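Bumping with the actual sequence this time:
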Amino acid sequence: MTVQFRPPAVPLVTVDPYFSVWSAADRLSDEHTTHWTNKRNSMTGIIMIDGRPRRFIGKTKLDESVDYPEPDAMEQTALEVTALSSKYRFEGDGIQLEVDFTTPLLLSELDILSRPASYVTFRVHSVDEKTHDVKIYFDITGEWCVNAPDQQIVWTRKPTSNGIVSLCMGSEEQPVLQRVGDNVRIDWGYVYLAVSESEQINTVIQSCHIRKEFIDSGNVTMSDDVRQPRAVEDDTPVMAAIFDFGKVNEEKRSQYAVLAYDDIQSIEYFNRPLNAYWRRDGLSFEEMLASAFAQYDEIMSKCDAFDQELKNESVNVGGSKYADILSLAYRQSIAAHKLVVDESGQILFLSKECFSNGCIGTVDVSYPSIPLYLRYNPELIKGMMRPIFRYSVTEEWPYDFAPHDVGCYPKANGQVYGDNKMESQMPIEECGNMLIMAAAVCLSENTADFADEYWDLLTKWANYLEVNGLDPNNQLCTDDFAGHLAHNANLSIKAIIGIGAYSVLCEMKGKTDEARRYYDAAKDMASQWVMMDQAGDHYKLTFDSSEDTWSLKYNLVWDNLFGLDLFPSEVLEKEIAHYFFKQNRYGTPLDSRHTYTKSDWLVWCASMAKPKEEFMAMIVPLWKSLHESPSRVPVTDWYDTVSGQQIVYDTANGKVGFQNRSVVGGLYIKLLQPFKRN
């Protein structure tokens, strides 16, 4: 029997690190919807069938002291999470209701991807051969546009234009680009609820108590609230739309709403405020919104086609459970970035390190994420790398190796990680990452033009790895939560492949002698690595550790994808066999020190297993971790392989754990084919 996948949390509205709302429950009506940071961003849906109200989104009461019973929940009969949509189905009182949440993050169409507009589609039809009177109430609260509920907000109804009715809310203060950090939410700009102008659709901005009026009467008679500004927690204001479907028979009827966010300015980039990509040619927010409505049918068709294409490919490559994982990861990875252009019009694709420190443009967050973008749009990888290249040549960066980040979201003004102290740097990690990413982009485009723009830096970093990379001294790597580690065997692999990647770039530029020299250096280092790390049936965690230590050697994946063949095939054969030997219920741990793992690295290792059956055998435990985990949060990439729980750690703002991070783009690595080299 096929078991329906139960995501730990379901993406509903996923545009960027600020405009990101999820359902962390088995049923959409079980709990309030939340921002990815776990703070409530309430959304409510109520269907009235022949005068009887039923909830289908969230709860109606924001405060349990409110004295009225919650309406019964409509029975949820199905949930399907595709790459671009989360599709719910409900049934009750003779009506079937479908609710689709679609954010059209089409990687091949950046104008559409960058629009801060997400669709909620409602479809109803009779399933008992009878006709029923149907209305739907839908709202979102002022929580969506503030960091904390004690902040004051204002609201307005925009003049109807292009057949669109728009309601919007925003903070009174409007501190544009001022709030910096990890566990924070946007408190500038304006959140919108927009619908088509129609006699069958009514809209209102009011206190959340209008939910009860609809429950009691099936109508909302109040006009727009005028008591503003006021705190969100003060009789919480909501923006609501009421859809009157009239007499509903077996023929499907549909309506939709658009949830949108005007962030005014998106990123501060080396002390210059930047607009979102969709604004680069002067498009106004109203024009953007009009396009979102005008292209609704076309966009939905494109989304459906992409969803099916991805599903078919991922099932073929790795089975149905792999397809489930990739569909869940897609929107999360993209929406953990912001797409902007710099002053010269070049694309910047800036990630936020969600619940791992809030850094912006982190190299070792970009590195694991790139398989998704290599598969669909390598230009976005360039957008990840450009800020690092730019910062690396400034006087503010004093080191000969690559930086870790360019700031704390949303301010990309220069590295903040570890207060830039030497002991907090990741020299081998970031140099290797930048070289590997550069080679991957250039191979995917079959030209070294991108690398040529930054050749001096890439050469400097390759030379750094040649001198320092074979036997790394005590330092951090991307798995910094595990602490400093000297003689790190997997980090050494990254250095070796980073040098190999540079040899590929030299080859592509026609620098034959340099290509041979760096390749030979990498090959010699790989031979030394084998001698230094062998432990019989596997390879050790560090060169100086005992033979019972081990680790996931995930960096080996690029040796195959780049066609370098630096390491003997028996290295991988031994390692894969050992990973199965060490596998727990929810996967193979990251290394011998702990039972936790990283899902991106787990899939990278699985992708190197030759038979499809072995790949699937390593993937099924990851699927189970998502399906069974008690940690109801957006996908975590750091979890325990015994319990399936998210790993949490202490911060100044309490306990958090990795979630909603862009690194899940790395789960797409099995879709990549080895690059063809001329």
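The tokens above came from a reply further down the thread. The CA atoms of residues 34 and 633 lie 10 Å apart.
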